[in-house]
Amino acid sequence: MAHPSQLGFQDAASPVMEELLHFHDHVLMIVFLISTLVLYIIVAMVSTKLTSKYLLDSQEVEIIWTILPAIILILIALPSLRILYLMDEVDDPHLTIKAMGHQWYWSYEYADYVDLEFDSYMMPTQDLSPGQFRLLEADHRMVIPVASPIRVLVSAEDVLHSWAVPALGVKMDAVPGRLNQTAFITLRPGVYYGQCSEICGANHSFMPIVVEAVPLKHFENWSALMVEDA
């Protein structure tokens, strides 16, 4: 989860998020270099006393400032396109979960299990246990096995929502009447928090997403108990 006064991204918990962090650092270095060069040129142009009223153009300079930006854009575009294709790839998922957005809560349905579905509401502040986070904790978490490819089918029942978990590098719009899909793999066990990222009404800020990644054996025990209780 995010921390107070945090400026950067959350720690990556999936391979896609690791790639996004590397791409962010790559582009940020290019931005710093361009900003430094532009600042140097501005200072040099303002402070110099050298002028030439006979200089009308410079083919060399025009060639450089045409080719150099094109090279920079290619250096940004190639890794960006690579990550976009990685994010769209859904390769033999071990588990498929349908996440449905409502005003204002999420419901989950495990497609590979019969009768394994539940609603997930935000935990009221007065019901929080020590260590749980206000406005981020849900009464039912989406439990998944760690290190397994997970496919999430995202839709909505009423208005636009968005299913987003920053640590996993996942953000998918929930559109009524349309089924979108995304996929991810968690690198380690843990609890990952997200929130609806599409303004969906008065209680938009009160429909958190909680993904709990556990070892496969623990997931099988949890799913068996949930099916028995259904």
Automatic annotation (TrEMBL):
Pfam family name, one: COX2
Keywords, alphabetical: Copper, Electron transport, Magnesium, Membrane, Metal-binding, Mitochondrion, Mitochondrion inner membrane, Respiratory chain, Translocase, Transmembrane, Transmembrane helix, Transport
Entry annotated with the keyword Transport: yes
One Gene Ontology CC term in the entry: mitochondrial inner membrane
PROSITE patterns: COX2 (PS00078), COX2_CUA (PS50857), COX2_TM (PS50999)
Catalyzed reactions: 4 Fe(II)-[cytochrome c] + O2 + 8 H(+)(in) = 4 Fe(III)-[cytochrome c] + 2 H2O + 4 H(+)(out)
Cofactor binding annotation: Binds a copper A center.
Cofactor: Cu cation
Membrane topology qualifier: Multi-pass membrane protein
Subcellular location: Mitochondrion inner membrane
Top-level taxonomic group: Eukaryota
Domain Cytochrome oxidase subunit II transmembrane region profile residues, every copy: 1-91
Alphabetical list of CDD domains matching this protein: CcO_II_C
GO MF terms, alphabetically ordered: copper ion binding; cytochrome-c oxidase activity; oxidoreductase activity
Transmembrane segments: 27-51, 63-85
Residue intervals of the Cytochrome oxidase subunit II copper A binding domain: 92-225
GO annotation terms (biological process): ATP synthesis coupled electron transport
Family recorded in the similarity comment: Belongs to the cytochrome c oxidase subunit 2 family.
Main function: Component of the cytochrome c oxidase, the last enzyme in the mitochondrial electron transport chain which drives oxidative phosphorylation. The respiratory chain contains 3 multisubunit complexes succinate dehydrogenase (complex II, CII), ubiquinol-cytochrome c oxidoreductase (cytochrome b-c1 complex, complex III, CIII) and cytochrome c oxidase (complex IV, CIV), that cooperate to transfer electrons derived from NADH and succinate to molecular oxygen, creating an electrochemical gradient over the inner membrane that drives transmembrane transport and the ATP synthase.
Protein name per UniProt: Cytochrome c oxidase subunit 2
Organism: Lophius litulon
